[in-house]
Amino acid sequence: MNKSLLERLLDFYHISYEEYLLLNKDVDLNSFYLGHNFDDINNAINLVKGVIDKKGKIIIYGDYDADGIMGTSILVKCFQYLDVVVDYYIPNRYVDGYGINMNHAQRFVDSHYDLVITVDNGITAFEPIELLHNNGVKVLILDHHQAQDTLPKADAICHPIVSHFGEITSSGAFTAFIYSISLLGRVDKYLATLASISVISDMMPLLQYNRDLLRCIFKDYNPGEFLSIDLLADHEPLNETVIGMKIAPRINSIGRLLEDSSINKIVEYFVSSNKDFILNYYSFIIDMNEERKNISRIDLNYLQFNSEDNAIIIKGDYKEGIIGLIANSLMIKYDKPVIVFAPAIDDTYKGSARAPEGYDIVEIFSELNEYLLTSGGHSSAAGCSIKREDFEAFKNKFYEIISHKPIKKVEHPYIEIGMSELGFENAALIDSFAPFGESWPIPTFRLRHIKVDTLTFSRDHKHIITNLGNQLKIVYFNYPEKELANKKYIDVLGTINKKSYRGYFYLEFSCKEFLDSSN
After folding, report:
1. Is the pTM of this model over 0.85?
2. Which end of the chain has less neighbouring CB within 10 Å, N or C?
3. Is the dihedral of CA 152, 156, 160, 165 positive or negative?
4. In this predicted model, what pLDDT tens digit does every residue of 152-194 receive, in sequence order?
């Protein structure tokens, strides 16, 4: 290790020192987006202002995940600042499904709305938007999902890629926030904070303006500033971990479990100034999140499938909102593609798929079009629906495809580091590359030649928790003690994190993998 740790970090991220300095340039909310805006933004602003001037009726149509809820809340709050009353609707996944549909489009026509704003959906809603268009209802689409070559007949569209905001995509709520800047004529910190939550919750690439927005929020956020967010963060300073592990799952629990229109109250939670309502609804969110945990805490050993198969496809009595969580747990445990189907409704099964790195579930679905009613998603996480009568044929074909697609082992880079380099100064250097997330992972380090008999297990022998002195711990959760039998030395792959407990600060080397020592 002749190179300094900084040089090794630059190599890990494939950037120069000059690019590193740009990563750490000073940013603030008033300038982080300079040089970017949506094509035709003036038309999109004039569209809304024209309806406001005529005192027309406006409704915002969002989505039931954290991104859609944040985006809807941003717009509702934005209109509150303008003293404009608007309606909003968060669809229910069990009743409405994803995106604006024909039934709601007709309802908006019958209710004499002058403008429908879709947020986090709409870019592929051709028929509902055409219905609105043909009946004189104006439409503004604020979306970020992948668009087709042809676009819906909306009066205006704001989309990170379609509208040439920049080179990388962002979330639906980020799109709504950038739109709010032009509509309000200023940058609002609360709306920016809601958008930052969506960037993490929707796993957007933490590059360029996405990264800069998070840096702006994280450096200046003061616990106690926004009650609705502080409660969900347990009053901790905001960072990518607090959002990803606390705030986003709690928001998403509402969309996963509620089966009626009461899901819309979560928008009120984020836009209301009524402290009593916020505190009461926060308690409800926590209860829902605990219920979500309990429902998804399924003993995987009791599920009916053959673990020897090269993939897992099961159907059972699970709520549609948690089948993705079950699929993810199975995928992690068995390291193979998984699809979990919820009970059939109207002879249709809805499934959630997860796949280990090295598989592309969307590519696999492309070979199953004869059975699919709907499908979509990302390479590692996707959804689909099939007819009840096609389940066995779909399952067999899926297994056949997987048998001819062996996993492509992905080698992850790591940085060599010595025990003497594990200190707070270097931890601060690592943190200077934060925030970490999609497309910008937290660096993995390799610590070589650790003597096995120096590692200590927890009382239940399930976890390695070893104090190494100098305010340093090595931890490895859920690691079987028997795996270290007959080993004298090992190499450790993991991440370095600064931790605190009751005012005591220490460094934690969080293990991801043990390797045979090469020394």
Report:
1. yes
2. C
3. positive
4. 999 999 999 999 999 999 999 999 999 999 999 999 999 999 9
